[in-house]
């Protein structure tokens, strides 16, 4: 006599009972429950997202004159009051961050013990109560000796699900597979990565620095002015710029590439040479030197010859720098150089000039490659570039972030946590073979916490194989 049955699937596994948190009987309990709530986590994440938008729009660690020019005196004072010009180091932003970290930690501490009990106290025996609770279940009754049924069940279970364990009793044996248990802790691994990331960011923000330094060719520096502060930091070495070059697109002032040749010295001895360009920094002792900008140093000067319309010398030559106003004998206008271009027409220097007469202002250009170009402007005199003493500087952004290793570790842990969370399922499968030698009963049950469709196909395939195997062995 043989029989077989498959109990219809229930809508879902009967979930482990989640004990409702007891209402706090004290102030401490109430505070703990509030700090460990999911509602608080969502609220804090929204606040952080909103403030991060502000931090993106508003320039961080800029110079006072930049804010005054952009926003005016009143709004700049408001920014200072709320520390919006250095938001990520402000007391209120760090407070929100600390609250979020506390919330994540307490949420994990509060919920992890229940998950750990599910992992460590997984049933080893498929009893009737457990069998009725399972969503995936089936049964087979064949006139097959229990020993042969156990052998077939062991092989099929191993081929479909992996390593098989057993639990014996007087009434029979339960073969079971419990794999992927760590899939239940993926969310907690992600929580841990967020904690590491926040610690690294805060540590780097507090103890690291960002600065900017302009170096002209041949100059050596060992101090870096800090952004947003009237202070400098002393480097444990010195840096010299041996060469700086800008390559322009032909016929334009648009830079195609620019780079600096830097030499690093420690205790007077050369220890490193490197050509840096955009996205290829110099790194030493964890300090990064990025090629950030370039320009003409404020000490640069241009000598202008002063000529009359016929091309004869009308007045002594004038040597001036950017922003220095000057007058010429016989001309009521005031002149000033607004900008110096080291390389312009024909690869030679040029300058942008301003002419002031009364309340009016007029711009014009002088190019060394076109010496009589200014004569067409008209007026009692015109100018010609005679000599130049132009010094270009390379602008280097200097940064040290001691928390960067923690940030990288957090990224690795987060990737691991996300992989475990989405791709690792905790699967448990039991096969119980009763000891009745005349009419052996085999119960099969399974559960999974993720990817139910995939698990259902595996489970039904194993159950079908088991039925076929026992059918061939029945008496």
- Given the C-alpha coordinates, what overall shape results? elongated
**Proportion in helices:** 25-40%
Task: Kindly state the number of beta strands.
Answer: 21
- Helices and strands: which structural class? alpha+beta
Spans of at least 5 consecutive residues with low confidence: 1-24
Rg from alpha-carbon coordinates? 39 Å
Number of helices: 10
CATH class of the domain at 200-298 and 394-402: Mainly Beta
Question: Main β-sheet: number of strands, strand sense, barrel status?
Answer: 6 strands, antiparallel
Do you know the CATH architecture of the domain at 200-298 and 394-402?
Sandwich
- Report the sheet-strand fraction: 35-45%
CATH topology of the domain at 200-298 and 394-402: Tick-borne Encephalitis virus Glycoprotein, domain 1
Query: Strand order of the main beta sheet, please?
Result: 1-2-21-20-4-3
Average predicted confidence as pLDDT: 86
Q: Span from first to last CA?
A: 9 Å
């Amino acid at each position: 006599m043989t029989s077989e049955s498959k109990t219809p699937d229930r809508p879902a596994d009967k979930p482990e009972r989640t004990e409702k948190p007891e209402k706090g009987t004290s102030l401490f309990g109430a505070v703990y429950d509030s700090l460990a709530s999911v509602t608080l986590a969502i609220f804090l994440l929204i606040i952080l997202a909103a403030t991060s938008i502000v931090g993106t729009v508003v320039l961080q660690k800029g110079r006072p004159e930049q804010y005054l020019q952009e926003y005016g005196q009143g709004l700049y004072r408001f920014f200072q009051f709320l520390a919006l010009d250095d938001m990520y180091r402000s007391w209120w932003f760090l407070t929100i961050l600390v609250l979020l970290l506390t919330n994540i930690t307490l949420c994990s501490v509060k919920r992890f013990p229940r998950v750990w009990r599910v992992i460590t106290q997984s049933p080893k025996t498929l009893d009737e109560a457990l069998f009725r609770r399972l969503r995936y279940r089936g049964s087979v009754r064949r006139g097959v000796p229990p020993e042969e049924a156990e052998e077939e069940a062991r092989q099929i279970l191993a081929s479909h699900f992996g390593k098989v364990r057993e639990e014996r009793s007087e009434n029979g044996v339960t073969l079971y597979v419990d794999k992927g248990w760590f899939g239940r802790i993926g969310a907690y691994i992600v929580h841990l990565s967020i904690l590491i990331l926040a610690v690294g960011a805060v540590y780097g923000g507090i103890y690291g620095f960002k600065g900017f330094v302009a170096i002209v060719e041949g100059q050596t520096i060992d101090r870096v002015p800090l952004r947003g502060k009237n202070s400098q930091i002393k480097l444990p070495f010195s840096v010299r710029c041996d060469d700086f070059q800008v390559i322009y697109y032909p016929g334009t002032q648009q830079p195609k590439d620019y780079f600096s040749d830097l030499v690093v010295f420690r205790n007077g001895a050369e220890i490193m040479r490197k050509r840096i360009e955009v996205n290829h920094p110099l790194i030493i002792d964890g300090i990064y030197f990025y090629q950030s900008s370039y320009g003409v140093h404020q000490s640069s000067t241009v000598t202008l010859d002063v000529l009359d319309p016929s091309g004869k010398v009308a007045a002594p030559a004038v040597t001036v720098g950017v922003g220095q106003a000057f007058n010429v004998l016989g001309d009521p206008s005031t002149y000033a150089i607004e900008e110096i271009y080291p390389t312009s027409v024909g690869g030679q220097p040029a300058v942008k000039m301003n002419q002031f007469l009364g309340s009016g202002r007029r711009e014009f250009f002088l190019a060394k490659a076109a010496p009589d170009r200014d004569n067409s402007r008209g007026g009692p005199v015109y100018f010609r570039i005679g000599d130049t003493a132009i010094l270009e500087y390379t602008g280097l952004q200097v940064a040290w972030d001691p928390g960067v290793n923690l940030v990288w570790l957090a990224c690795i842990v987060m990737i691991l946590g996300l992989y475990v969370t989405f791709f690792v399922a905790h699967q448990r499968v039991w096969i119980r073979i009763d000891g009745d030698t005349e009419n052996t009963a085999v119960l099969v049950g399974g559960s999974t916490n993720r990817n139910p469709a995939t698990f259902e196909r595996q489970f039904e395939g194993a159950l079908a194989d088991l039925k076929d195997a026992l059918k061939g062995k029945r008496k």
